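In the design runs reported in the main text, the only information available to the sequence generator was the tokenized backbone. The following block is the verbatim input for one such run; it is reproduced so that readers can re-run the procedure and compare outputs position by position.
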């Protein structure tokens, strides 16, 4: 009115909806939503206090690197800790599958901790009851369900010999559901008036974390059971893609790839894809002849190095397609060729790792941007948190498990015979008669 600009308070979404519908000002849940929207700035300030990755490596090393350009300094620090992580991983691989499973568990817990810590910022802001305890309780119950199922599937024959363990196997799902119900009732009883929206948001937050971290880590351990190669090769592909994309982008990157990750470029993406396919083929070929790598874990543990090599890792002979047969005949060359099926599987895995795998990283980038944080943590200098490094690994592990069940896995003959041997005699006779009829119908006997 007098030339002075009057700044109005921003109108929240709930207020806009009320004004549009000419509704009276609400109290209870709608006012709860208003307060939730107004507290966004306070929450952003809280998330800024979360640990963030840096290039600091201690006073002695930092002084040595102080003269480097920040871009090159980051390259050196990332390179050093990439070598450290790959070396530690190689050491754990040499210790055997049990150590690898323990590693997956450790990574799972740390990744869950890093994601749930963002939710804890809300917890600390409003002092919501039981959020931290309930989050870890649901982590325990989900691990009990998923990994208990895995134990039942792979070692059920052995576990059934113990009466107590037999009860745990027989009622595993009932016990798992009972544990979840305890947590569910616990959450409902913890609800407090005025905090409903925030508490239900954190409840959903916890379950999304469990879906992303626990279920996918369970699938990764199932891959280990199918043979270490199904774990090592995909993990190595993601590492190769990550390193080579970074190096190609660092050296040649000019064209932005996606807005969620401004540092990602098309040059890095394409260079990483070609490198991953080539690296995957070389690594797969190097591991093909090693029983400890290719045998399913249940066979390897019972037969050691004398286990039966699965068909995917044995050399096969096939004929060239029709359009190639005639040229080969004219050149007086064989019309058949030999190949290892797993090398073709390796190409499929490497294409997923290099084309779709990075979208796990893009998803994580969007997640971090939503909460205005740079990294999930600061446990790895130059890299950030474990979740910053394993976001693509989780997606890759899920794809490998789906791939195995779709194209690779076949019923285990020894396990089928063991299961049949545990049945009552009349059931065994029923199976025998039914199988005999099937074989007669097929003309095999």
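Verbatim output:
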């Amino acid at each position: 009115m007098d030339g002075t600009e009057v700044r109005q308070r921003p109108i929240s979404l709930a207020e806009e909806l009320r004004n549009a519908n000419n509704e009276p000002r609400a109290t209870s849940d709608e006012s709860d939503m208003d307060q939730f929207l107004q507290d966004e700035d306070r929450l952003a300030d809280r998330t800024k206090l979360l640990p963030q990755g840096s290039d600091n490596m201690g006073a002695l090393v930092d002084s040595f690197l102080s003269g480097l350009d920040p871009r090159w300094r980051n390259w050196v620090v990332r390179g050093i800790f990439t070598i450290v992580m790959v070396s530690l991983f190689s050491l754990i691989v040499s210790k055997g599958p049990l150590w690898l499973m323990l590693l997956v568990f450790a990574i799972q817990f740390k990744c869950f901790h890093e994601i749930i810590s963002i939710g804890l910022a809300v917890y600390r802001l409003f002092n919501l009851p039981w959020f931290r305890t309930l989050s870890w309780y649901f982590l325990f119950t989900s691990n009990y369900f998923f990994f208990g199922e895995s134990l039942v599937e792979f070692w059920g024959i052995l576990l059934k010999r113990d009466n107590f363990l037999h009860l745990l196997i027989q009622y595993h799902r009932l016990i798992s559901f009972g544990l979840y119900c305890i947590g569910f009732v616990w959450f409902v009883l913890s609800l407090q008036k005025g905090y409903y929206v925030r508490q239900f948001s954190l409840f959903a937050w916890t379950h999304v974390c469990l879906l992303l971290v626990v279920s996918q880590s369970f699938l990764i351990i199932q891959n280990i059971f199918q043979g270490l190669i199904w774990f090592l090769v995909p993990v190595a592909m993601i590492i190769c893609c990550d390193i080579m994309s970074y190096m190609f982008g660092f050296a040649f990157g000019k064209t932005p790839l996606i807005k969620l990750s401004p540092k990602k470029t098309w040059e890095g993406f394409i260079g990483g894809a070609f490198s991953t396919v080539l690296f995957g083929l070389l690594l797969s070929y190097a591991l093909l002849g090693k029983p400890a790598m290719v045998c399913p874990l249940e066979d390897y543990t019972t037969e050691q190095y004398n286990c039966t090599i699965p068909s995917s890792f044995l050399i096969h002979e096939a004929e060239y397609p029709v359009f190639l047969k005639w040229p080969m005949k004219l050149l007086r060359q064989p019309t058949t060729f030999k190949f290892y099926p797993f090398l073709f599987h390796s190409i499929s895995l490497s294409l997923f790792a290099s084309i779709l795998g990075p979208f796990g990283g893009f998803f994580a980038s969007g997640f971090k941007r939503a909460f205005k944080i740079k990294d999930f943590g600061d446990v790895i200098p130059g890299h950030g948190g474990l979740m910053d490094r394993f976001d693509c690994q989780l997606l890759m592990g899920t794809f490998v498990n789906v791939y195995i069940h779709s194209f690779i896995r076949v019923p285990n003959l020894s396990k089928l015979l063991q299961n049949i041997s545990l049945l009552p005699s009349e059931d065994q006779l029923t199976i025998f008669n039914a199988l005999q009829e099937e074989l007669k119908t097929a003309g095999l006997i």
